Amino acid sequence: KITKEQQALMQVIVDAYNRHQIPQDMAKKLLQDQYSAEENFLLLTEMATNQVQVLVEFTKNIPGFLSLNHEDQIALLKGSAVEAMFLRSAQVFSRKRPSGHTDVLEERIRKSGISEEFMTPMFNFYKSIGELHMMQEEQALLTAITILTPDRPYVRDHQAVERLQEPMLDVLRKLCSLQHPHEPQYFARLLGRLTELRTLNHYHAEMLTSWRMNDHKFTPLLCEIWDVE
Amino acid sequence: EEPSLLKKLLLAPANS
């Protein structure tokens, strides 16, 4: 049974998750008519910059996060940004959209200079998230759990982060067993996606390098969060 | 040292 405290914790996280979304006009821009590969890249860069701002605002609302020491807050954001953004993109991508929009979005991503070897694992991940048909609560909690992963580089007070992540894992586990009574493996499948996300981190680093080679520029915020000079 | 944009975003009041 989910306790009252757990219900309250989940509500705060879900409200923050719903409140901080990519601005509609930004999302619409992505679905407009065709652009060149260069303009696609600029659009996706602007989208990613928006996503980082949304990620930081969401994270500030996670109960207890702002009580962590400042350096660890920065280390957690930098360490989880790529995973949290892919998780968020996968959730947006798999959401029901007017027909035709999904392939416009997919087309735009495919024509933005991302190397093929990265494209496949990324779309496979989007598909694997889509197949779970996650509820908003599960999406919000899984994103918070990803951000509060203690073993990120440069995190010093692991225990303090674990004390925040544990209760979220506990309420997510209960939620999964309540919402998916006939699928005892569902919670494990969700956590399995976090493992998949880690591999995307590696591909993302490769992708940045290939973009850098073609002299693509990133915004200052992306350079900082992705540690790109 | 460039002022950290992340720090600025973190220090801004929540829900700005």
Which features characterize this protein?
heterodimer, A: 229 residues, mainly alpha, 0% strand, globular, B: 16 residues, 1 helix, 44% helix
Question: How is the biggest beta sheet of chain A arranged?
Answer: none
Average pLDDT taken over every residue of chain B: 81
Strand runs of chain A, count: 0
SSE string of chain A, helix = H, strand = E? HHHHHHHHHH
Shape verdict of chain B: rod-shaped
What structural class is derived from the secondary structure elements of chain B? mainly alpha
The overall average pLDDT of chain A, rounded, is: 88
Walk me through this protein's architecture.
The complex is a heterodimer of chains A (229) and B (16). In chain A, helix 3 crosses helix 4, helix 4 crosses helix 9 and helix 7 (136-147) packs antiparallel against helix 8 (158-179). Chain A has 229 residues and is mainly α. The longest helix of chain A is centred in the C-terminal third of the chain and has 28 residues, at 186-213. Chain A has helices at 4-19, 24-30, 37-60, 70-94, 101-110, 116-130, 136-147, 158-179, 186-213, 220-225. With 16 residues, chain B is mostly helical. Chain B contains one helix and no strands. The radius of gyration of chain B is 8 Å and the shape is rod-shaped. In chain B, 6% of the residues are buried. The mean pLDDT of chain B is 81. The interface between A and B is medium-sized, with 16 and 10 residues.
Blueprint (SSEs and pairs):
The complex is a heterodimer of chains A (229) and B (16).
Chain A: H1 4-19, H2 24-30, H3 37-60, H4 70-94, H5 101-110, H6 116-130, H7 136-147, H8 158-179, H9 186-213, H10 220-225
Chain B: H1 5-11
Give a short synopsis of this structure.
With 229 residues, chain A is mainly α. Helix content of chain A is 72%, strand content 0%. Chain B has one helix and no strands.
